[in-house]
């Protein structure tokens, strides 16, 4: 479908279509198609669109191409909470726990954005993987103090997982 859209003279995909196409390539079997889509994104000038950025970052990390995921992230002129979340999640999924912790520490130290539920659950997953009860407990306390509206079942599951993997069931 996408290839036929490209071959048509009248139809050019927008940033939402491109983000969807890239997201559909998020496995190693379709990595080549995702890379070709990235090339089209650059040629079309849509690489700075938020949906496309996050799709590209997630695509490369999903294909275990950490270097390219980081390269896309660092090439962006501006970072928002969504691109930070994509980076954190990608690093965590690929076992780059120290790098993810550095990014999160940088976010905290430089007061970058207010965190959302996804940020909290991703970093709690990092704490679970590293068995870092101290940081996990600090995050839990922050959640309780801020009375976060993002305190939902997904976040509670991340807390249970973190405490369980740290041996504090």
Automatic annotation (TrEMBL):
Q: Which UniProt keywords apply?
A: Repeat
Provide the coiled-coil residue spans: none
Recorded hits in InterPro entries, A to Z, give: PPR, PPR_rpt, TPR-like_helical_dom_sf
Concerning Pfam families, the annotation shows: PPR_2
Any keyword Repeat?
yes
Q: Where are the PPR repeats?
A: 80-114
Question: Ribosomal protein as a keyword?
Answer: no
NCBIfam families reported in the protein's UniProt record: PPR
Protein's name in the database: Pentatricopeptide repeat-containing protein
List the top taxonomic levels of the source. Answer: Eukaryota, Viridiplantae, Streptophyta, Embryophyta, Tracheophyta
